[in-house]
Amino acid sequence: MKNIKIITTSLVIMLCITNSSIKNETKDPETITSAPTPTPEESFDEIVFNWSRTLAQAMDIAHKKHYKINDVKESMIKAIDGFVSTLDAHSGLLDPKSYTEMLKMTSGEFFGIGIVIDNMRKKKDKHLTIVDTIPDGPADKAGILPMDKIVEVNGNILEGDATEKIIAQLKGERHSSVNVKVMRENNPDLLSFDIIRDVVKEQHSLSFHIKNHDIAYISLSMFTDIASKQIAQLLKKSHEHNYKGLILDLRNNSGGLLTAAIDIASLFLKKGSLIAITKDKNDQETERYVTKNEPIIKNNLPIFILINNYTASAAEILAGSLKIHSEQLGDYLAFLVGTKTFGKGSVQEVIPIGNNCALKLTTHLYFLPNDTTIQGTGIEPDFFVEQTTPPSEQVQWFIKHYGREEALENYIKVAPKTDNKDELKKEQKKSTNRRYDRAKEMLQKDHQLHECITLIHILNTAKTYTPHLVKTRADACQYLKKNFISSDTLEIEEVKL
Q1: CA proximity to 311, closest of 319, 299, 301
Q2: Which of 43, 417, 490, 495 has a 20 to 30 A CA-CA distance from 205?
Q3: How many CB atoms lie within 10 A of CB 296?
């Protein structure tokens, strides 16, 4: 099997079926750190040979002396994973079950329970937090709630298990049952749920026209093949409507297909523009990614890109490259608003090995067009705006995902069990309206979005009455920072009376 390149860091995982081919999957929130290097006296091969002999001795003694060895295969899997996972935060071993499930996921042939999970957990953690449930999905119908914490799957305690292994346990044959036990806030008892696995469809974008401000808004939670087509349609409408600005919301976007991010960049940049390059461990360039189509944007529509600390991988590459090209071109107006991005600029490959296992191994780093890496550093916004409105952790989780994945125009939907096409259409429409209503409700309270709208109004006013002050991007940034005081540190001095 050909190695699979992975170019996304997801901080959440959808346990659902996808009908599109997803070639890029990795989900880990930690920053990569360099593995210890061998001492000058010993080469890598010498160290591996010597310690392999020690490992063989330990296994031989355990075989002869241990009272009762329960599962030799599981012990070997953990031993190999122990080596690979210490190389960096994104590398590890996929055991036979996890590897099989990953292959099914990339081919769109698996069934799940319809939940979004927080993947920041460690193996030592005793639970897995449910960030959200897919409306009308299997878990939602069974009574699972956002912020429930799974502690057991089919009687297996989660402590010590990798998240990938837990995911494999939650997925299975369609219409099969999986039992989960959860802890719920303000409830002293463990709650048990039998959930019937089913089809859950996922798509990742949402768009609105903010009518009273005449601004176009589009949110992308992940880069898919259809994403660039949707933004292209919105840009074509902008030619007819003459919006004051476009807000491209990449908050909580964990990445996805790099090709989709490049396609989106090509809507704004001239053909042949460099978006990213990859380099190997010797700092040698291995691949260049450039736009392949002519741009469709025709007017000087300012683009304000919302980012936060969950904007990662391909989303960072898109935001960073648009900013860099905007700075270089001068009159191309693209601005970053929000907080510093995640800083995931590494490439993982899934490499098949023996015993139906595979290695998920970091092999390259991404670099932006100006030859800087985002790995471990992230991208700073032009205008720093914290998300301050949500009053509770529960609402924060809700905003993070609704208006992103579950409430998007391309929504996640469990196929209703009916042969009646009219009934199916009614259910789909009802589910779509529900997601849009929930998304609009949360956007009303979105502090960062409101501040972004303010920036667009300030820029639009300047373009109308004092265009010479915002002629280039540098001029516009200077003007906006002078007049946008939301996040300024106030210089307060006592006045003595």
Answers
A1: 319
A2: 417
A3: 15
What are 367's two structure tokens? Answer: 């670099």
The secondary structure of residue 346, as a DSSP letter, is: E
Per-residue pLDDT tens over the stretch 138-185? 998 899 988 899 999 999 888 877 777 788 888 888 889 999 999 998
Strands 358-367 and 346-352: antiparallel
Token representation of residue 363: 């092999």
Q: Which two tokens stand for residue 325?
A: 């090209």
How far, in Å, CA of 153 to CA of 139, rounded?
13
Burial class (CB in 10 A: 0-12, 13-18, 19+), 406: buried
Question: What's the half-sphere exposure (Cβ side, CA atoms, 13 Å) at 130?
Answer: 26
Burial class (CB in 10 A: 0-12, 13-18, 19+), 3: middle
The string of pLDDT tens digits covering residues 37-51 is 555 678 999 999 999
CA distance 342 to 213: 30
| Contact in structure between 98 and 165 (CB atoms under 8 Å) | yes
Which residues are within 8 A (CB) of 107 and not within 5 positions of it... i.e. 6 or more apart?
Answer: 21
Residues near 22 by beta carbon (within 8 Å), at least 6 away in sequence: 105, 106, 108, 224, 256, 257
Alpha carbon distances (Å) from 118 to 128, 148, 386: 7, 11, 21
Q: Give the containing element (helix H, strand E) for 397.
A: helix 393-401
- The DSSP code for 180 is E
For 276-290, b/e burial (b = at least 16 CB within 10 A) is bbbbeeeeeeeeebb
Find the angle CA(17)-CA(110)-CA(348) to the nearest 5 degrees.
85
What crossing angle do the helices spanning 473-483 and 314-329 adopt, rounded to 10°?
A: 110
Whether residue 226 contacts residue 423, with contact meaning beta carbons closer than 8 Å, is answered with no
Q: How does DSSP classify residue 37?
A: P
142 φψ region: left (φ > 0), alpha (ψ -120 to 50), beta (else): alpha
HSE toward the beta carbon, residue 393, CA cutoff 13 A: 7
pLDDT score for 129: 86
Report how far residue 338's alpha carbon sits from residue 388's, in angstroms, rounded to the nearest whole number: 11
Mean local confidence (pLDDT), 91-105: 81
